[in-house]
Amino acid sequence: MSKSLFEKVWDAHAVRQLANGQTQLLIGTHLIHEVTSPQAFGMLRDHGLKVQYPHRTFATVDHIVPTNESVEPYSDPLAQGMIEELRKNCAENGVTFFDTNTGKQGVVHIVGPEQGITQPGTTIACGDSHTATHGAFGAIAFGIGTSQVRDVLATQTIALNQLKVRRINVNGDLLPGVYAKDVILHIIRLLGTQGGTGYAYEYAGTTFDNFTMEERMTVCNMSIEGGARVGYVNPDETTFEYLKGRPYSPTGEAWDAAVAEWKSFASDEGCSYDDVVNIDASEIQPTVTWGITPAQGVGINENIPAIAEGETQSERDSIAEALEYMKFEGGSAMKGKKIDVAFIGSCTNGRLSDFEEVAKFVEGRKVAEGVQAIIVPGSQVVAKIAEAKGLDKIFVEAGFEWRAAGCSMCLAMNPDKLVGDQLCASSSNRNFKGRQGSPTGRTMLMSPLMVAAAAVTGEVSDAREVFGVAPVGV
Amino acid sequence: MPSTPIKQVSGKGVFVPGDDIDTDRIIPARFMKCITFDGLGEYLFYDVRKTESGEDKAHNLNDPRFSEASILVSGNNFGCGSSREHAPQSILRAGYNAVIAGSFAEIFFGNSTNLGVVCVIATDADREAIAAAIEADPTLEVTIDVENLKVNFGDQSVPCEIKPGARDSLLSGNYDPLSELLEGLDDVAKTAGALSYMQA
Ligand code: SF4
Question: Any CB–CB contact under 8 A between B140 and chain A?
Fold first, then answer.
């Protein structure tokens, strides 16, 4: 019988059925960070348990690291305490830690792939909802809670219900100036923030076939914003090409065997899906969120909806709540909203290709007066390559701050925060109330190039016009 | 480590209106700079309850009439966003042990169930009826009957839903899966042994 990648990976990792009908699922690769793991190690100590497969857990520190100071102790004693706790837990349990002095530290979802730890046909879990990022490689990757981090440490398994699979086909070429970020914002806008509940999303179609691994990661990363805990792309030559020669990738004969095995996990032609959605790539516009959920987005040339446009009372309530929080007028143009801050970074768009694309267009331009613009590499590896290519100089010359690797202003558990009701153009993944550190701070999600366009004009703009990416009106 | 079975949860209710209440709203990230979950209860819904200068906003959660509530009633897609277990932990530590919503985000639902925080689904109309009843009488006893899938309040009763697996786990007291997972360690070794990438 033909099967989807999800089913094959699930079957290969299913240990047994539990009394309540859930599956005890083997988690081959476990990634941890400083925010959601200390309590799990604490629970392990309380139960007198040890880490069962220490060589399959990898740690990094990302959420709390300051991006503008590198010398410890950090000015924030709580942040210092968290990094030290992680160091201690890793050392005591024999877990590999990509610490700040290794040259490999960074946002967990950037580090796993770039080290070659993220591989096709595997199961991956991390106490972090953006773990679906790793699905870009044809892995089944879950965000889990801290009690489950404990379960993985103690048993290398979690108790889980099987998911349904929705195939999302995107076919055709994206218009110039439209990016992977726009693809996922468009999907979420179409299917809603709860559309993916109970599903794994299989992203496919010629648009995905032509995507680089970094573009696939951007889309998979935001699966959870659409309610899907898991999102993946079937592995292909692009995947293998990316993995070849990475520190944790197999070598020699083992490489050939691995590639053959990885290929066998791809969804079989003609396998059945619980649902199929088809999207025409040419319909996708540069997309910007105007509200407080990632589904509240519009194409750059559209207007923000008016309350009356909501079809149900609860939709009208949601629009009203979002407009009030964002201080936007219903029916007004998305374009032209004056920004205070521009942020390019995060596990969604903090990779080398994001910075290369932005550098290409901001070279010789200047960040608008009164706008604070920061660019934060997703990892030390990304930072090093970007600097070797001179991208940092282009950014600094243009008036951006070039920072050290970390989550930074994506969630502001570090010194990078919005102040008051500042309006931020952001390449990150969440626009929830207060997400960027100020309880009244306002976030608009968009692609890195759209953030750059907003940074140089001082307002939400169409990057295609600002940078001459494509003729106006396309 | 089986816990006490949870067949029903009773207590007073409080209505927290809104759809898509995300985990950043349940517990803002800035309060997660901690290495234990102790003390998180204090920061539950912090920015919903407090102004930027730390004063109480007008909200049911600050209303003394609802100060004894132990059951939250809310909207659709409750607990969306981050996988942080800090969210159900802060709910539990603030003295709540159940949530009635229109729907739940998946990771939040799983995290809550593992902790024995009962999450049940009721329709918009039924939640409105519950909200209206507790608004009219904040001392009203609300009972979530996990066994019979009902929410009883005053002389009213409405149906509710919960995933069958989660219901079984609550009723049997096996909602924390750790001991059952540990019992399977030999089988885990077999499954791991068949996967090349698992080898040391
Ligand atoms: S960059 Fe943002 S979304 Fe990604 S792991 Fe860090 S805080 Fe989470």
Answer: no
Distance in Å, alpha carbon of A79 to nearest chain B alpha carbon? 7
**Closest-CA distance of chain B to residue A392, Å:** 29
**Other Cβ atoms within 10 Å of B24 Cβ, number:** 23
Q: Is the separation of the CB atoms in B59 and B51 below 8 Å?
A: no
| B11 C-alpha to ligand 1 centroid (Å) | 37
pLDDT in tens, B59-94: 999 999 999 999 999 999 999 999 999 999 999 999
Integer Cα distance of B93 and A251 in angstroms? 50
Would you list the domain boundaries of chain B?
Answer: 8-174
Nearest-CB residue to B114 (from A55, A145, A430): A145
- Residue A308's Cβ-count burial label (10 Å; 0-12, 13-18, 19+) is exposed
Report how far Cα B162 is from the mean position of its chain's Cα atoms.
Answer: 12
Q: Which CATH superfamily is domain B8-174 in?
A: Aconitase, domain 4 (3.20.19.10)
Name the residue among A19, A15, A39 with its Cα closest to residue A147.
A39
Question: Tens digit of pLDDT for each residue in B132-160?
Answer: 999 999 999 999 999 999 999 999 999 99
ipTM for the predicted complex comes to 0.95
Query: Which domains are seen in chain A, by residue range?
Result: 5-275 (3.30.499.10), 288-466 (3.30.499.10)
